[in-house]
Automatic annotation (TrEMBL):
Highest taxon listed in the record's lineage: Bacteria
Keyword Transmembrane helix: no
Protein name: ATP-binding cassette domain-containing protein
Phylogenetic classification of the source organism: Bacteria, Pseudomonadati, Pseudomonadota, Alphaproteobacteria, Rhodobacterales
SMART domains registered for this protein in UniProt: AAA
Homology family: Belongs to the ABC transporter superfamily.
PROSITE patterns: ABC_TRANSPORTER_1, ABC_TRANSPORTER_2
ABC transporter domain: residues covered: 11-234
Organism: Roseicyclus persicicus
This protein's UniProt keywords: ATP-binding, Nodulation, Nucleotide-binding, Transport
Length: 240
């Protein structure tokens, strides 16, 4: 079905800023999210990574600058966001996948097929009728990613998706992200975890105090960061 609709990517940000009152939290961010890539947004605590993702997703509006989605729409449907702590409904696992599909207007039979396909694809079938909020943290995040996948996004924004998880749950989530990527879904991910950034990033955007101070291919960034701040960050030094 998607073949007949124009792609929403690339997404271009031009001089995007976000301020609360007179305090700028993000300033003058210009960035292009290219289709089919895995972009990792890096930076210290408070650098503005989550804000940048929420702006891209459209859950908050910039106070300066502009966003251009390739299809010309202000906030396209074919994108989804998953948070560090998944926001799940007080319903079963299956109902959590079904609900956003219903909101999007899919017929009951299309939804039933998509829920079954999603449960099967991510090994969630045995938990289908369990209350989602009783799942472990790792299972909840698997469900949040599976639910996002069921919406057939072109781009998925992932805000620290594994920071509350142990290494084995993290591995499962990273494998899911790689499988999305292999299907052509564009990934924009924030992380504190340098190991994760090295494993997953094809491109890097490095934020420092609300400014995007480096961006480009991950290999070049990790091999030779250009700024003192990025060098210090990669060396594990405290920067502020
Ligand atoms: N609504 C808001 N009002 C005031 N300040 C805010 C608001 N939202 C975020 N901030 C501040 O903006 C800065 C950037 O926040 P953001 O959550 O984007 O950082 P981050 O890079 O994701 O950090 P972390 O890695 O700790 O999650 C922080 O100093 C935060 O306290």
């Amino acid at each position: 079905m998607r073949a007949f609709v124009p792609s929403i990517l690339p997404l271009r940000l031009e001089g995007v800023g976000y301020a609360v009152g007179v305090k700028p939290l993000l300033s003058d961010v210009s960035l292009t999210v290219e289709p089919g890539r895995r972009l990792v947004v890096l930076g210290a605590n408070g650098a503005g990574k989550s804000l940048l993702l929420r702006l891209c997703h459209g859950s908050i509006a910039p106070t300066s600058g502009r966003f251009f989605w390739a299809d010309g729409s202000p906030r396209p449907e074919a994108q989804a966001m998953v948070f560090q702590r998944p926001v799940l409904l007080r319903r079963t696992v299956a109902a959590n996948i079904d609900y956003p599909l219903a909101l999007r207007g899919l017929s009951r039979s299309d939804r039933r097929a998509m829920v079954a396909r999603t449960l099967d694809r991510f090994g969630l079938g045995a938990m289908a009728e369990r209350p989602a909020r009783l799942l472990s943290g790792g299972e909840q995040q698997r469900l949040a990613l599976a639910r996002a996948w069921a919406m057939r996004p072109e781009v998925l924004f992932l805000d620290e998706p594994t920071s509350a998880l142990d290494p084995s749950a993290t591995r499962i989530i990273e494998e899911m992200i790689e499988s999305f990527s292999a299907e052509g879904i564009t990934i924009v991910l924030t992380t504190h975890n340098l190991g994760q950034a090295r494993r997953l990033a094809e491109d890097v955007a490095f934020l420092h105090r609300g400014r995007l101070i480096e961006q480009g291919p991950a290999a070049a960034f990790f091999a030779g960061p250009k700024t003192t701040e990025a060098r210090a960050f990669l060396a594990g030094d405290l920067i502020w």
